[in-house]
Amino acid sequence: MNGADVRKMIRMRRLRDRFLSADLFGEAAWDILLDLMAARIEGTQVAVSSLCIAAAVLPTTALRAIRGMTERGLFLRVSDAHDKRRIFIQLSDATADAMRGYLSAVKQQGAVFA
Prior knowledge:
Blueprint: H1 3-19, H2 28-42, E1 46-47, H3 48-54, H4 59-71, E2 75-79, E3 87-91, H5 93-108
Helix pairs in contact: 1-2, 3-4
């Protein structure tokens, strides 16, 4: 599983939203997890504001999901060394391992999903 594979999943989810109302699925947390996994593989940092956009929901909904997953230990908050006002979010090692295992299993099955 590489960053391009994860980004493809994200694009497929947005494609689904063009045909079916996105509010049917309510999966902001999953969109956030996918975005953070792709960023981890690619070695990039993701700001909270970017995650809110990636979640494709209202910012308050995304922030609530981010806060909940951070409190549960799935995410880590990291201060930007150059701008103390900005916070990056990243997957905890355990969450990254779980995501890697799941995404690899999906790929091994040849499954395509959105």
